[in-house]
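quick q for whoever's on today - can somebody do inverse folding on this one?? i tried earlier but teh output was garbage lol. tokens:
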């Protein structure tokens, strides 16, 4: 029987001593935290999103797989629009919070922050542009990018694999697909690290810099034309002004900074550090796609969705009373390991894609195929062309300090290029 410390009707703000999301995500064993919260609270638990000037910003963390699906699929009860958040309505947020920059009270003009008809209008151009991409060209460009980065790593060397390979590949492959040249992609990557820094001022500055670069390139693409994502977005009739185009383009740029880097990093970490896992891959019992999926199940790079939902009504979720205006954080990693859907048998996850790393419902990720194509190519190219060995015990490696993304902060390694067969 689930043990709860308080009644299910207590208000969110009445709870104290809350566990920090960053503490959970960057801990050696986040699943232990989720299990403790699940035992104490059930499928929905109060947590701390952020602390600023001694003010704790609270939210409900949704732990259950079924409860996460319920929130993701219902725009009638749970909104992406932060204008519905009580902390915005009542002006409770201290200035300079990172969550305030992610969830502005005046939502940016992108489907990411809207619901209903407005979401549909703004989402349609991105869906159409992604559907029109030639995946063969994307794969070729990503392969070329991998070869460039591998050549830059030299015939042999040592260092941080995240910095040397995972981050530049994930980011530059996505920005190239959008239509940016390598120099511009590098400029965007310099700002990208600030997007998940947790520092509100750094996040705001990075967002402004990124928006300026994207706006300039939108005007160029409209004049020159092209087959890349940005060129297609630049001429789509659904958009009312360039600000809407820029906001829509920034979403996949941010996704590259946040998700692809983490997915590539954790897949390589799993293969390089876990001998039994590596044996299943090298022995052909687990395909590369299966490897990528098992990482999403076991080590979800998105620990919590960086897009909270906001209750539009007083509702009950997982036996807990949610008040109108409450923030709900979707616990992706917790849901993927929910005992109700996760047996613990790794073979149950092979080619099983019912995990929630892409989300579900009207706000599901628009680019799962593109992300998989880039991640698969990046992992395959490194393992094909480099002999890589981690040089520190995996238990000693720190995790990135983030409330949302979980991946190794660094992967100290040695590497040498595999000789090309004649």
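ok took a stab at it. sequence:
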């Amino acid at each position: 029987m689930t043990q709860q410390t308080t009644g299910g009707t207590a208000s969110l703000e009445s709870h104290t001593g809350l566990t920090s999301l960053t503490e959970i995500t960057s801990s050696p064993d986040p699943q232990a935290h989720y299990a403790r919260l699940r035992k104490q609270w059930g499928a929905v638990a109060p947590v701390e999103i952020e602390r600023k000037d001694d003010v704790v910003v609270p939210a409900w963390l949704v732990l259950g797989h079924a409860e996460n699906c319920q929130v993701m699929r219902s725009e009638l009860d749970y909104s992406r629009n932060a204008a519905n958040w009580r902390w915005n309505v009542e002006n409770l947020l201290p200035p300079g919070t990172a969550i305030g920059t992610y969830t502005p009270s005046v939502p940016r003009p992108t489907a990411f922050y809207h619901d209903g008809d407005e979401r549909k209008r703004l989402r349609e151009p991105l869906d159409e542009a992604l559907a029109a991409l030639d995946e063969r060209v994307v794969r070729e460009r990503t392969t070329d990018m991998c070869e460039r980065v591998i050549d830059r790593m030299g015939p042999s060397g040592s260092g941080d694999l995240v910095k040397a390979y995972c981050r530049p590949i994930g980011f530059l492959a996505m920005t190239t697909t959008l239509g940016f040249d390598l120099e511009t992609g590098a400029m965007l990557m310099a700002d990208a690290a600030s997007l998940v820094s947790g520092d509100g001022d750094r996040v705001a500055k990075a967002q402004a810099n990124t928006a300026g670069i994207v706006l300039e390139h939108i005007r160029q693409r409209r004049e020159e034309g092209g087959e890349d994502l940005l060129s297609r977005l630049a001429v789509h009739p659904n958009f009312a002004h360039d600000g809407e185009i820029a906001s829509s383009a920034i979403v996949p740029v941010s996704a590259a900074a946040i998700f692809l880097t983490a997915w590539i990093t954790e897949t390589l970490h799993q293969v390089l550090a876990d001998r039994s896992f590596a044996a299943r891959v090298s022995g052909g019992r687990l395909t590369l796609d299966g490897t990528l999926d098992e990482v999403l199940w076991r080590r979800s790079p998105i620990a919590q969705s960086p897009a909270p939902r906001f209750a539009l009504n007083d509702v009950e979720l997982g036996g807990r009373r949610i008040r109108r205006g409450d923030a709900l954080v979707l616990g992706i990693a917790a849901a993927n390991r929910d005992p109700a859907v996760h047996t613990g048998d790794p073979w149950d996850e092979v080619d099983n894609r019912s995990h929630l790393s892409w989300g579900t419902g009207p706000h599901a990720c628009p680019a799962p195929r593109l992300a998989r194509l880039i991640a698969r190519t990046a992992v395959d190219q490194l393992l094909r062309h480099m002999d890589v060995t981690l040089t520190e015990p995996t238990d000693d490696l720190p995790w990135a300090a983030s409330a949302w993304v979980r991946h190794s902060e660094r992967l100290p390694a040695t590497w040498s290029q595999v000789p090309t067969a004649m």
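fwiw The chain has a mean pLDDT of 88. also Residues 12-108+133-162+260-417 form a domain with the Cytochrome p450 fold (CATH 1.10.630.10). so keep that in mind when u check it
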